[in-house]
Amino acid sequence: MKKTVFNYRDDDYDLTITVKQATVLDGLERAALYAEIKDEEIIPFLSPRIARNPGLVWWFKQLYADTVVLTVDIKSNDPKKSKVPKDLSFEELVRLPEVLLEGWHNTIISINPQLIPTPPPKPEKGETVEEAGEESEPSGETSS
Q1: Cβ neighbours for 52, distance < 8 A, ≥ 6 positions apart
Q2: Which pLDDT tens digit goes with each residue over 46-86?
Q3: Alpha-carbon distance 36 to 59, whole Å?
Q4: Half-sphere exposure (CA, 13 Å, Cβ side) for 20?
Q5: Residue pair 18/84 in contact by the 8 Å Cβ criterion
Q6: Contact assessment for residue 10 and residue 78, using Cβ atoms and an 8 Å cutoff
Q7: Which of 97, 18, 31 minimizes the C-alpha distance to 64?
Q8: Is 2 within 8 Å of 72 (Cβ atoms)?
Q9: Which of 33, 40, 42, 111 is deepest in the core (most CB within 10 A)?
């Protein structure tokens, strides 16, 4: 299994974070964790503007599941600086510096490009989001 390291250092943190390439089992673990996360559990940690946006709530749940499942180890290199637990909570995650979380998740994506979120297709004028995402039927087949 491929692993890679992300190092982060600022006034509050000095961390070495090891992440891994996802296996099929990891994918199932991420899916199970995502399914277990209830919006009501994370909404209290988000601002009202973010909480009203289902796309951002979806993204946050994905980010959380990727980060928790695919992180192998988090080492604090300086005992005087803040630590980050491997199985961090939602509240701990949203309180991290954005540059730390972005670098950490980008490191996960660098060895797991299949995790890059794909936004749903944008609807054309007069079309709903669901209609924009429908696939056309193969030629020769008709719907019943």
Answers
A1: none
A2: 888 988 888 888 888 999 999 999 999 999 999 999 999 99
A3: 15
A4: 14
A5: no
A6: no
A7: 31
A8: no
A9: 42
